[in-house]
Write a structure and sequence with these properties.
Helices cover 0% and strands 52% of the residues. It is built from no helices and eleven strands. It has strands spanning 3-7, 10-12, 18-25, 33-39, 45-51, 58-60, 68-73, 78-83, 92-99, 106-109, 113-117. Strands 2, 4, 5, 6, 9, 10 and 11 form a seven-stranded mixed beta sheet that branches. Strands 1-3-8-7 form a four-stranded antiparallel beta sheet, with no helix packed on it. A hairpin with a 6-residue loop joins strand 9 and strand 10. The protein is globular and about 40 Å long.
Length: 119
């Protein structure tokens, strides 16, 4: 059974930082492309970042480019999202998701972790 478990969310002030983690099981993590996707109150899903089998091959949405950094530790079956200079607009539930390599089609989702940016 594929499982994705996120952690690391919380309440942070504007300008602060958080590091999200996603522990994967039930599939060969090292061969899987992964993504972070978020959902803000009253908004649809927004793609944030995709991290392919090599952390050097990572894509970001324009809204987070330069502030967020995705990475992975294949030995620990863990995906990370380092978030810096957080803004109130970053407030959302953040999900990690397993995606297909060549297409943004998602095969599995975690339960999400809440990030709230507020003073």
């Amino acid at each position: 059974e594929v499982q994705l478990v996120e952690s690391g969310g919380g309440l942070v002030q504007p300008g602060g930082s958080l590091r999200l983690s996603c522990v994967a099981s039930g599939f060969t993590f090292s061969s899987a492309a992964m993504s972070w996707v978020r959902q803000s109150p009253g908004k649809g899903l927004e793609w944030v970042s995709s991290i392919f089998t090599d952390s050097r091959n990572t894509l970001y949405a324009d809204s987070v480019k330069g502030r967020f950094a995705g990475s992975r530790d294949n030995a620990k079956n863990t995906l990370y999202l380092e978030m810096n200079n957080l803004k109130p607009d970053d407030t959302a539930v953040y999900f990690c998701a397993k995606r297909q390599v060549y297409y943004a089609i998602y095969d599995a989702w975690g339960q999400g972790t809440q990030v709230t940016v507020s003073s």
